[in-house]
Amino acid sequence: MIPATRTDPLFFLSDQLNDLKTKGTHFRLRVLDDEQAAICTFDGKRVINLASNNYLGLTTHPKLREAALEATRKYGVGSGAVRTIAGTMKIHMELEEKIARFKNVEACVVFQSGFAANAGTVSAILGKDDFIISDQLNHASIIDGARLSRAKILVFEHNGVFSMDGDIGPLPGLCDVAEKYGAIMMVDDAHASGVLGRNGRGTVDHFKVHGRVDIQVGTLSKAIGALGGYVCGTRDLIDFLYHRARPFLFSTSHPPSVAATCIAAFEVLENEPERIEKLWENTRFWKKELGLLGFDIGGRNTPASETPIIPIIIGDGKLTMDFSRELFQEGVLGTGIAYPTVPEGKARIRTIMTATHTKEELEQALEVLEKVGRRMGILG
Question: Which residue among 22, 60, 259, 343 is buried most deeply as judged by most CB within 10 Å?
Fold first, then answer.
């Protein structure tokens, strides 16, 4: 029996939540009722979806669906163990080999998430006697991995294909610096995998710097349409991560259905390049039209977008979240993103193009954005 006078030791969480509500940046999770698609139903409302990382529409691709079903019939629903005990299935090895060939590297290891891939790799290969030179806007998974490594961290001004601004960093120049000083070059390609390079091979292929990047990290959760993360490099790097990357060592491996889905996704990348072409066609149209309406889509006080991630910079966190809610009521899902995900004063609606958006859907979304933007004083 709990004493009536017991003090809640988590009271401070309520205080912090109340502070978010006062600032107008508190949010609730929107619930998807059907498939992740260009038009879908959230909280019972049909909306044009501008918030998904499903760049190529692979979450609902028939070949991926069938691969998942067939693997479940053949192997069951789970692996039953971590990879190092009894949870490495043949299909896991097939996926790693598939990715390694696709990325033109010696070997690959798959993690349970992109976050685990970054944090697990950085914390495994570096220690307290090392220095980490890290981009100012690096993902939280890289930052956490760096902290766990206990290495000394030096931060430089932003460069890269990042989830909030959509810009592309000067990878060849960064490789030059790494080679000059004998540093390890690591790239997180989460938002470039399936988007940049030949058939979506990423930034290394986009800039033709094969052999100059020591560690390539990617995700299976965005353009690939499923779940997970991966690390590519030399056989020794991957073997070391098998032995020392803590998320790999202490987490149950992917269900066979997920591994099969990812294998099918890489086959789609090879065989259906028109999906990437359509993605970029939509991106060019969307960026042009948003700019013509007068929205700040980067390039003023934030980096200019060069990818299918096109932010609408609002600045004020409360105004951004209110704008997002009003858009939803008008039939457009555009997620508001404020501090601490982005710096104070740089809150934005992050819009993301996919290959499955039609021009008619995008034109309808533009009409809503203009109407709500003018009503709220965001547009003049």
Answer: 259
